[in-house]
TrEMBL record:
Organism: Bifidobacterium asteroides
Oligomer status and interactors: Forms a heterodimer with GatD.
Protein name listed in UniProt: Lipid II isoglutaminyl synthase (glutamine-hydrolyzing) subunit MurT
Gene: murT
PANTHER family per UniProt: LIPID II ISOGLUTAMINYL SYNTHASE (GLUTAMINE-HYDROLYZING) SUBUNIT MURT, MUR LIGASE FAMILY MEMBER
Domain spans labelled Mur ligase central: 50-271
Keyword terms: ATP-binding, Cell shape, Cell wall biogenesis/degradation, Ligase, Metal-binding, Nucleotide-binding, Peptidoglycan synthesis
């Protein structure tokens, strides 16, 4: 009955364009609290849980896509609705009336806090824990709190936990895994460490010279010379990367945008190798599977409008925004920034002051929008970045932005709810892939 009701809610929600991708899951959880655990319990290869501050959606997509390319039938939550009810909603969409999940493995993205709720119901066989950064401080508090949440995921994992050895808080979670649970790492070559600073690196100036400022985290510790990594990212190139696996250097082209997604690819490779260790896919098959991965919706997704590309780049914390800005040359593009402060974005937008926007000085920003448009415009002004227009209404802002230099490539940096609304608005005027998400 819960499944039938959930499917009915999903249909009504989509037809009426009300509610989001998680609404059917919320209803099903209320009717049948055991639905999630019961449905996922019979998967032959169990459940993969992916969590961390940055890169969850794209990395989950990478892992799921690669495992499918390598022969497994995969269930995943592809929309980025990463609460437990979002996973239930994805199940409602996938399941037939029998209620049986026809898959070998589930690859699931979970919000850091909701991952704890998930593992109380379902023990993952594998966990991939990416990083901890200052993000949504109004929800999580300081990042040590986030690390403690991810520690509970590590404690609940029954097979193998894959950790980021370059993030000291993530690497330290190895000590919290059960004795029978394996630990593997992904990492960076020494040459790339400066491309991907940890949260401590970014906020080193907040501590005293001895690193013992009041309430501060421990000084950054880099683990690259002490912990063996399953996969390391060795070199980054334009839509191409080189990885080290068991001493071998492998290169492949990628469809993904941004240097940060190349590091996510190393994480995905490490996890896939662990899941398929009984099959040991050859190097060519692994690289081919990775090369086929396309961007997750709203994460470097390119939508064509009147023959010109409109790229959506999700930004939700200082590190993500900084890496996005460093990944893309603004020359020859029109730039828009859309910042909202709904619950899913995080209410505290003070993190914008930790982002360096000087790379936009020469080109300027054509449009700033969203509920926090004026905060964003003020931040740009402090970095001497010219702003051509400010419009808090996203629909009007998008329409005006698209008319600037028709036919010229455009890039929009946007928070999560801004991305959903902009994507929906674009869907009314051009072709946009259906991701199953309400407006």
């Amino acid at each position: 009955m819960a499944l039938l009701v959930g499917k009915a809610v999903r249909l009504v929600s989509r037809l009426s364009h009300h509610g989001g991708s998680a609404l059917p899951g919320k209803v099903v959880e209320r009717i049948d609290p055991g639905f999630l655990a019961r449905t996922l319990s019979g998967l032959p290869r169990g459940v993969v849980l992916v969590s961390g501050t940055n890169g969850k959606t794209t990395t989950t997509r990478m892992v799921a896509s690669m495992l499918e390319s390598l022969g497994l039938k995969v269930f995943t939550n592809p929309t980025g609705s990463n609460f437990t009810r979002g996973v239930v909603s994805a199940l409602v969409s996938t399941l037939g009336l029998s209620g049986r999940l026809h898959a070998d493995i589930a690859v699931l993205e979970l919000d850091e806090a909701y991952a704890v709720h998930f593992v109380r119901q379902v023990k993952p066989r594998y966990a991939l824990l990416l990083n901890v950064m200052r993000d949504q401080l109004d929800r999580f508090g300081e990042i040590d709190t986030t690390a403690r949440l991810l520690g509970q995921v590590a404690q609940a994992t029954t097979g193998t936990v894959v950790l980021n050895r370059e993030d000291p808080r993530i690497a330290s979670l190895a000590a919290q895994t059960p004795a029978q649970t394996g630990v593997a790492y992904f990492g960076l070559s020494d040459d790339l460490l400066t491309y991907f600073p940890t949260d401590d690196d970014m906020h080193a100036s907040d501590r005293g010279a001895d690193g013992d400022g009041a309430g501060s985290a421990p000084p950054p510790v880099r683990h690259g010379h002490r912990l063996p990594a399953e996969v390391t990212l060795e070199r980054v190139m334009d839509h191409r990367a080189a990885f080290r696996l068991d001493g071998r250097i492998l290169e492949t082209n990628l469809h993904l945008e941004g240097v940060y997604n190349l590091y996510n690819a190393a994480a995905a490779l490490a996890l896939v190798r662990v899941v398929l260790e009984d099959r040991e896919p050859d190097d060519a098959a692994l690289m081919d599977a990775l090369s086929k991965v396309t961007p997750a919706f709203g994460r470097g997704e390119v939508i064509t409008y009147q023959g010109a590309p409109v790229e959506l780049v999700l930004v939700k914390n200082p590190m993500g925004f900084r890496l996005a800005l460093s990944s893309f040359d603004p020359a020859g593009q029109d730039t828009m920034i859309a910042i909202r402060d709904e619950y899913a974005d995080g209410r505290d937008m003070s993190w914008l002051w930790d982002v360096d926007f000087t790379s936009l000085r020469d080109t300027g920003v054509a449009m700033v929008s969203g509920t926090r448009a004026y905060d964003m415009a003020l931040r740009l002004a402090y970095d001497q970045v010219p702003t051509e227009a400010i419009e808090t209404d996203l629909d009007r802002a998008l329409a005006a932005f698209l008319e600037v230099h028709p036919g010229r490539p455009k890039r929009i940096y946007c928070t999560y709810t801004s991305m959903l609304r902009l994507r929906s608005a674009l869907g009314r005027i051009t072709s946009v892939d259906d991701a199953g998400v309400g407006a």
